[in-house]
C-alpha cells in the first residue's frame, strides 16, 4: 500500500513538472516593450504639437503602469495623441492589459467616452504633420461599458486612413464591432493582437477570439492634416508602428509584451 501511495505521488509530481515545462515554453520569446521607468524607447505625437512633445504630461508612468491623463489640459481642442514604440513590426503576437479610470475630459468629443485604442501598422510618427489628428493606421479599439446593461463590445477595429477586408469584401465601415462581452468599471481587461503581416489579423479579449480580418491597405477617410505623399491609397500594409492612443478618456496600460512570429511574406 505504501509503495502504491509513493508511486501515485511521483506520478502526480511528474505531471506537475511536465505542466510547468510546457508553461515555460509558452512564455518563451516574449519581450517587454516598457522598462517601467521612462519612455526612452517611445515617441509621443499629439495633434497640434510637434513630434516628441508630451504636451500636458499626457503620457506618464507610475508603478510600472502607463497612465494617460488630461489634468494639465485646459481646453481639449482635439489634441488626440499617440505614444509609439521605436520599432515597426510585421508578424507578431502582442498582448497587454488596459483599464478605464476617472472621467472623460469635458472638452473631448462624446464618442471618446470610455474609448481608447492600440494602433498598429501605423505610419512613422516622424512623418506626421503638426496638425494631423490621427496616424494612418489600423486601430484595435478599446471600449468600456457604461454600467447600464447595454452591450458595448471592445476589441473592435477602426481604420483611420485605411481599409480592411472583412467577410470577403472591403468593409465600407470605419469601425467593425467585435463579438466581445461588455466590461464595465475599472477592471483590467486582457487584450491580444495576432498580426500576420497583411494576411490575417486576429483580435482576442480575455482569451476569446472576437474579430478577424485581412488585407489592410491605405485608403478611406477620417484622417486629416496628413502629408499627401504619405497617404498612398491602395498600398498594402504588411508592417508598421504600434502606438497607445489618447483621445480624452483617462486609461491605464500594463504588461505590454510582444513575441515576433515567422514572417512568411519575406
Helix/strand layout:
Layout: H1 2-26, E1 31-32, E2 42-46, E3 59-62, E4 65-68, E5 81-85, E6 91-100, E7 115-122, E8 138-143, E9 156-158, E10 162-166, E11 169-170, E12 175-176, E13 189-196, E14 200-205, E15 208-218, E16 241-246, E17 251-260
Antiparallel strand pairs: 1-17, 2-5, 3-4, 4-17, 5-16, 6-13, 6-17, 7-8, 7-16, 8-9, 9-12, 10-11, 10-15, 13-14, 14-15
Describe the protein in words.
Residues 29-259 form the 3-keto-alpha-glucoside-1,2-lyase/3-keto-2-hydroxy-glucal hydratase domain. With 266 residues, the protein is mostly beta strands. The chain contains one helix and 17 strands. Strands 1, 3, 4, 6, 10, 11, 13, 14, 15 and 17 form a ten-stranded antiparallel β-sheet that branches. The longest helix has 25 residues, at 2-26. Residues 1-16 and 18-23 have low confidence and may be disordered.
Please name the CATH topology: Jelly Rolls
The end-to-end span amounts to 61 Å
Helices and strands, in order, run as HEEEEEEEEEEEEEEEEE
Structural class by helix and strand composition: mainly beta
* Distinct helical segment count: 1
CATH architecture: Sandwich
**Radius of gyration, whole Å:** 21 Å
**Gross geometry:** globular
Helical residues, percent: under 10%
Quantity of strands, as a count:
17
Summed over residues and divided by their number, the pLDDT gives a mean of 91
Amino acid at each position: 500500500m505504501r509503495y502504491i501511495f509513493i508511486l501515485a505521488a511521483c506520478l502526480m509530481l511528474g505531471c506537475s513538472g511536465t505542466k510547468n515545462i510546457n508553461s515555460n515554453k509558452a512564455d518563451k520569446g516574449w519581450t517587454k516593450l516598457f522598462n517601467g521607468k521612462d519612455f526612452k524607447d517611445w515617441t509621443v505625437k499629439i495633434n497640434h504639437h510637434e513630434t516628441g512633445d508630451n504636451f500636458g504630461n499626457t503620457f506618464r508612468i507610475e508603478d510600472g503602469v502607463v497612465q494617460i491623463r488630461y489634468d494639465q489640459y485646459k481646453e481639449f481642442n482635439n489634441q488626440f495623441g499617440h505614444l509609439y514604440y521605436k520599432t515597426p513590426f510585421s508578424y507578431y503576437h502582442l498582448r497587454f492589459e488596459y483599464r478605464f479610470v476617472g472621467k472623460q475630459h469635458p472638452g473631448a468629443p462624446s464618442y471618446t467616452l470610455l474609448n481608447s485604442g492600440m494602433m498598429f501598422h501605423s505610419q512613422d510618427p516622424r512623418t506626421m504633420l503638426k496638425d494631423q489628428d490621427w496616424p494612418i493606421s489600423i486601430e484595435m479599439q478599446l471600449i468600456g461599458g457604461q454600467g447600464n446593461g447595454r452591450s458595448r463590445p471592445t476589441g473592435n477595429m477602426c481604420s483611420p486612413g485605411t481599409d480592411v477586408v472583412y467577410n470577403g469584401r472591403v468593409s465600407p465601415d470605419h469601425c467593425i464591432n467585435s463579438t466581445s462581452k461588455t466590461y464595465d468599471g475599472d477592471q483590467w481587461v486582457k487584450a491580444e493582437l495576432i498580426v500576420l503581416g497583411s494576411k490575417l489579423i486576429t483580435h482576442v479579449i480575455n482569451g476569446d477570439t472576437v474579430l478577424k480580418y485581412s488585407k489592410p491597405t491605405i485608403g478611406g477617410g477620417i484622417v486629416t492634416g496628413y502629408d499627401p505623399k504619405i497617404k498612398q491609397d491602395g498600398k498594402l500594409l504588411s508592417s508598421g508602428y504600434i502606438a497607445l492612443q489618447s483621445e480624452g478618456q483617462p486609461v491605464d496600460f500594463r504588461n505590454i509584451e510582444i513575441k515576433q512570429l515567422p514572417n512568411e511574406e519575406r
